[in-house]
Amino acid sequence: MQQQTATLVHELAEPFLAPDGHSYDVRVYGREREDGTWIGWLEFDNPLLARLSTDRETTQSKLEDVSYWARGLEPIYLEGAFARAHL
């Protein structure tokens, strides 16, 4: 089976303010796995600095569940995810 491309699941309305004071747009992406489940991860994007991505943050039964998870992300979760993110 061919690797699925990433799907933009959700874009947070408010930018994330990093500890260094820079702001990043936050997007949640998902991808269907071979077994039919979906994984989701976050991308923090500041066009002047970098685009950072986390590894898998969630595994859900279907795309709609990844979307539901993404809409419930709280600022404290984003702080941890930003610390885990990498280039």
Write the layout of secondary structure elements.
Blueprint lengths: L6 E5 L4 E2 L5 E10 L5 E9 L3 E4 L4 E3 L2 H9 L3 H10 L3
Antiparallel strand pairs: 1-3, 2-3, 3-4, 4-5, 4-6
Question: If you had to describe this structure to a student in words, what would you say it looks like?
Answer:
It is a single chain. With 87 residues, the protein is of the alpha+beta class. It has one domain (7-84). Helices cover 22% and strands 38% of the residues. The protein contains two helices and six strands; from the N terminus they run ββββββαα. The chain has helices at 63-71, 75-84; strands spanning 7-11, 16-17, 23-32, 38-46, 50-53, 58-60. Strands 1, 2, 3, 4, 5 and 6 form a six-stranded antiparallel β-sheet that branches. The mean pLDDT is 96.
Question: What labels would you give this structure?
Answer:
87 residues; alpha+beta; six-stranded antiparallel beta sheet; 6 strands
Q: Any idea what the radius of gyration is?
A: 13 Å
The SS-based structural class is alpha+beta
Largest sheet: 6 strands, antiparallel
What is the element string, with H for helices and E for strands? EEEEEEHH
Number of domains: 1
Q: From the structure provided, what is the oligomeric state, counting identical versus distinct chains?
A: single chain
Distance between the termini: 27 Å
How many helices? 2
Shape: globular
What fraction of the residues are assigned to beta strands by DSSP? 35-45%
Care to count the β-strands? 6
Arithmetic mean pLDDT: 96
| Fraction of helical residues | 10-25%
Low-confidence stretches: none
